[in-house]
Amino acid sequence: MPKFSDASLAKVKEIIARYPEGRHKSALLPVLHMAQAEFGGWLSTETMDYVASVIGIQPIEVYEVASFYTMFELQPTGQYVLQVCHTGPCCLVGADKIIAHLESKLGIKVGDTTSDGLFTLKTVECLASCGTAPVMQLGRRYVENLTEAKLDEMIESIRGNKS
Amino acid sequence: MSRKILLEHADVPGIDTFPIYRQHGGYDSVEKAVKMDPMAIVEEVKTSGLRGRGGAGFSTGIKWSFLDRKSNNPRYLVCNADEGEPGTFKDRYFMEKLPHLLVEGLIVSSFALGTHTAYVYVRGEFFWIIEALEVAIAEAKAAGFLGKNILGSGFDLEIYVHPGAGAYICGEESALLESLEGKKGYPRIKPPFPAISGLFGCPTVINNVETIAAVPWIIVNGGPAYAAIGIGRSTGTKLISASGNIKKPGVYEIDMGITVEEFVMSDEFCGGLLEGRTLKAIIAGGSSVPILPAHLAFKTAAGEPRLMTYESLFDGGFASGTMMGSGGFIVLDNTACIVRNTWNFSRFYHHESCGQCSPCREGTGWLEKVLHRLEHGEGKMHDIDLLVSISKKIEGHTICALGDAAAWPVVSAVLHFREEFESHVKNRGCL
Ligand SMILES: Cc1cc2nc3c(=O)[nH]c(=O)nc-3n(C[C@H](O)[C@H](O)[C@H](O)COP(=O)(O)O)c2cc1C
Ligand code: SF4
Known about the structure:
The complex is a heterodimer. By secondary structure, chain A is of the alpha+beta class. Chain A is 45% helix and 11% strand. Chain A contains 7 helices and 4 strands. In chain A, a hairpin with a 2-residue loop joins strand 3 and strand 4. In chain A, helix 2 (28-38) packs across helix 3 (45-55). Chain B folds into 3 domains: 18-228, NADH-ubiquinone oxidoreductase 51kDa subunit (Rossmann fold); 231-333, Ubiquitin-like (UB roll) (Roll); 338-426, de novo design (two linked rop proteins). Helices cover 43% and strands 13% of the residues of chain B. In chain B, strand 9 and strand 10 form a beta hairpin. The longest helix of chain B has 25 residues, at 402-426. The two termini of chain B are 41 Å apart. The complex binds flavin mononucleotide and iron/sulfur cluster. Flavin mononucleotide binds next to strand 4 and helix 18 of chain B.
């Protein structure tokens, strides 16, 4: 059973207080982000039930929202999730090639996770970074002006740190 | 020359911190505003001619004057920082550089509207911006510009940052409100409009980041000074996000009224095309607006120079014009494939449709499918007209404007680049 740390529980309380009395459901998106970060990078049914109980709403209200928004993972992912933008402006400057390169470098297809559990490769829609395209999201930051060399270096360094 | 109103201090080291921002005149507008009559601020914004920078271009002063001030319910100001329109990244750039200017704008706007709570809905992927805004809010509060009894005026205000979670549709204002209430981002049927019944059923004003950020300058310098910049009903400056096949992608603040040609070709802005390339098309206002072929990009159908204004970009209507939209300016050169780009955008709209209305939910899927087969060499000639027919059945028949946004790029691409679609049928794909 997942359980927030005391500091996180205090944070949840502070978040709920941002909204008027009786409008605690508004805290759902921020608290789901916290839960995903704290409980392994994805939202299991147990995690969603726990979030429902912490906020004081029905579990179904959490499932419905968690499945609507693309940032919430409903399946376990690799440790590093590479979310490469594949919308128009990124494709004008080579996003397709970057994605193909990542597939061959990691030996997986978009949507899959490497067998060592290190990387998940995903494509996402416009990240609002078209001026520094191609771009991907990695954790809580963006990696911009992607090149094959830059990606190779990054992947090698992550693999190196693990072995 | 480009005048800088919003970005004047963008490159000052440390401008994202309160003391440096304050040294450069930051928060002066709050000192001035709290001594004014709130309605006088609304009038000043009306006089300035400021129009919403989120895409629709509606007069900000008029929107503010619609706010129901007689209701016994609290009123809210909601800032739209969801920035999801492909080709648009100005709000992100602005908030990274000048978080305090947004906070300052929110304080003055809230004072004018009589709102005591403002929410900034930031797209969830911008983790670092959410943190930066929270720091800026805390700094402003510590200095007495937020919280109870701001600068001794008796006015109270709290600002909260609310993260989205990856849904383009939540940029649509009523979907944003649903999302802020902890629900799926389903746009609401209007009326009622948010000014009467918005967040939590209370009177609400929703404005884009760039709109709110223009308010401090207007209060310090006056509405007429702002209205003196630009041409006609396109007053002030506009942030343009420039991307695609150009030498210098980035965010530029322009005086409205410079020519499209200057914007694309001059070293001050896009820096022109890459060596040896020629211009094929522009998409002037984000993925949702009609695409314009090269011969209509720099000149209108009547042969006049096309300007970076709401009116000039729209000159010719949907037959030969486009729209300012969010100012997401995408340049396509001769290496770009129109069919592929249109397919890409239709995949985007299909992916982002909330699924509430069938013309949009099903129609965007059909558009994507038909464009996919055209791009991949499996299309038939009649598919080209099929695209137009599907688009026409979506346009105007949906709860929110995402349906129109999905239709316009397709209809305009077929209108202006029919030969390229035909060539994809004849040659079984891209040449
Ligand atoms: C599908 C869709 C997506 C939108 N996305 C955004 C957005 O990301 N940011 C924004 O400010 N406005 C967006 N809008 C426009 C808003 O609905 C609204 O008009 C705007 O936030 C109002 O602020 P303004 O008057 O200051 O422009 C979108 C509209 C639609 C139909
Ligand atoms: S037009 Fe599309 S996005 Fe808008 S409400 Fe209908 S289904 Fe949802």
